[in-house]
Amino acid sequence: MQDQLNAIWEQASAELKQISESAQLEQLRVKVLGKKGALTEILRGMGKLPAEERPRMGQMVNSIREKIEQAISERTAAIKQAEKEKALRSEVIDVTMPAKERQAGSLHPISLVLDDMLEIFSGLGFEMVEGPEIETDRFNFELLNVPKNHPARDAQDTFYIDDNVVLRSQTSPVQARVMTTRKPPIRIVSPGRVYRADEVDATHSPVFHQFEGLCIDENINMGDLKGTLDEFAKRMFGDGISTRFRPSFFPFTEPSAEVDLTCAACHGKGCRMCKGTGWIEVLGAGMVNPHVLEMCSIDPQKYQGFAFGMGIERIAVIKYGIPDMRYLYENDVRFLSQFR
Ligand code: PHE
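ok -> structure tokens follow
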């Protein structure tokens, strides 16, 4: 019996050495000390022993039990400690590790040129005013001297919401809004989205941005318009860039002009960008038609004004040499990240 006890002890302590998880320890404890355990088995067999041997054997079993319990609890403590250290080690932060690189965003090229334009014109004394993109026929057309059935309406393929409401086809309705609500002197610029039923191609989009300017005061003339736009051209594209006025027609300006800028790519020598002419068409402009002033309750005897409008995309395309306007709308980061 003593040999049996020693064998149990040896087997248990050998198994203990192999164990590395607390769950396995519990299994071992049940196997040796549990109700059906090896040691309990021996205790049961004690009944067969002669009575005088029982106390001595009882003592031996108990001392082995204590030894095994002691060993298990030491091993338990050691494993718990090891597990705790492992958990701590997994939480260690290496503060010397390089930081993850963060991709910084950038302003869209349309925002970049718009910011430039606003800065230039605010430097020239113009204030920014915005208007609604869903506009009434009255502001988008009627007050700009384009009555219903006027042939000029065909020039802009307008999205109609109903007979009297449109998606604005130009930023010029903001002129009309300002003229009907303010007294001269007026100096405003108005950027924003405009809508036209155009097919998408390299130079067209059904949604694009315009930038409108309006100046009304006493003694305003075509020279003021020319000077303002020349100054804008220089500040936007650099010295050596000027403007050229060609006669044109807009119902709300008289006289009207198409305004070209010196080609910024070749500085007027002639290149592919400007189709060899040295000039690039950029703006529509003119003196505010006296009839428009009258409709907006401004006395045309006392006041004159000039107005101009241009596409913001067009400015961006010229400024950055963008070969196709569609790049501006596709949000391809390979394109956008070049403006960081
Ligand atoms: N609104 C005109 C257009 O979209 C441009 C323009 C604005 C012309 C102001 C003259 C004065 O074509």
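Residues 170, 172, 212, 250, 253, 284-286, 307-309 surround phenylalanine (CB under 6 Å).
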